[in-house]
Amino acid sequence: GSVVPRAPPSLILSEVKTHDGVDVDIKLEGLGGNRRRISGGLYIEAPPRAIWDTLTNYNKLHEYIPNIAESGAMLQPDGKVRIEQVGVISPTLGLKTRITLQVEEEPYRTLTFTKVQSREFLEFEGTYTITSPPSGGGMAYLKYIVEALPHPLLPVGLVQGKIRAEVPPMLSAVRASANEYQSMRVRAMG
């Protein structure tokens, strides 16, 4: 059971951050106590498949996503994927987070990471959603939502500030990587 009861979301802030020339929609909400929901979204010129293949390349995430120092995937006996990630909280202080996440895949649409083990978070769930606009045109909108309850010893302001600061560069890195992957695929098929 959860220590802190869930409360209806209360908006802390909503903003548009421009990263690498692309607008990223950011929203930060309180969900009762120190529980936070941070969401971000942007348009990507590549189709859902290219974005999906980029996000599910679990062993390579640290190569293009800032602040992930290591990332490795393990297939569980039940056929599900678990990933272990080492993130950097503060390079100057040498603070790192280690988290084991269970992955739920709904191909080309939704990818959910749920905390199995972590010292820093009592609760952590991240979800990527890929939607294609009705007009199509080979574009897609990628949304990332993280709901987290940090360990009581960690100042929630630090944690929410860090996640909020990381979402635009992370989504921007996924976009750049998916676009590059797509252009390579097009060239290979051409």
From TrEMBL:
Residues 44-137 form the Coenzyme Q-binding protein COQ10 START domain. InterPro entries: COQ10_START (IPR005031), START-like_dom_sf (IPR023393). It comes from the Eukaryota. It holds the Pfam family Polyketide_cyc. Coiled coil: none annotated. This is Coenzyme Q-binding protein COQ10 START domain-containing protein.
